């Protein structure tokens, strides 16, 4: 159709159930068609990919010229991911058509796209033409991912995890503004920072290629997964090097105090650790000195040689990532930008 905002579809022909994967791509495109038309967006190629990075779920190249979606779990290429999970990835990549970085403007647009799509689904819209509710298929012809039972289970899962109702009674995926209203500024900043970090893991982002006219076979399309994170020891070394980079706007006294207290004796004895307590390496919660497991996430306490010493003084707080001691007036670490929840 000439008004179809998605022009071409490509599934991996060498993977099992290739025909079902192609129909899944078309069903996803049909579901978001009204949203694409409303914003006057087009997707030239909607392509299935199966990257070696198991965390990579989607990628947008040249602002919608090609959108890659992972349809299958990395551990079993004969199965498909949940339909609504793939749909959420598609909406995320659609937001990259007009906004590249994962910033405040991007997430505002993404929330709008989610709301528009969920309102369509709540009204009964499941796509047009072949994918609309007016067409009934034989039981044997319905793929597993299109089964009504699977759709009902996904809807129930969304209801249990979301718990945030729209004014019309619909359910909003991914959280909503009502949650943010009850957060402190520090908590809201931490939530946004955590969300950006997670998106960097599974989203390939908005990629710009100089030559966008060539079209290759989907099964051999080049994939550029995000760089593999460095080892924890490399991160610690790099972050400790940054511990001396105090912002220039700090006054002389604050700078002097921070530099004097930012040096931590790596030979700290167990007595000091037991006196001050220890910070969980998973959730950063400050536990009591005699606690053997984190009281929040139940992570086992690290050995004394690896434990993080926590300064419980009233004037400073110790960053659990880079160990820099920051003044209480800073809500984020001045060295590694870790956001402290208060």
UniProtKB/TrEMBL annotation:
One of its GO terms (molecular function) is zinc ion binding. The keyword Nucleus does not apply. This is Na+/H+ antiporter. The lineage of its organism: Eukaryota, Fungi, Fungi incertae sedis, Mucoromycota, Mucoromycotina. Residues 274-303, 313-337 form the RanBP2-type domain. It comes from Mucor velutinosus. It comes from the Eukaryota. GO terms for biological process: DNA repair. Pfam families: WLM (PF08325), Zn_ribbon_RanBP (PF00641). Gene3D superfamilies: Zn-finger domain of Sec23/24. Residues 208-258 are annotated as: Disordered. The keyword Zinc applies.
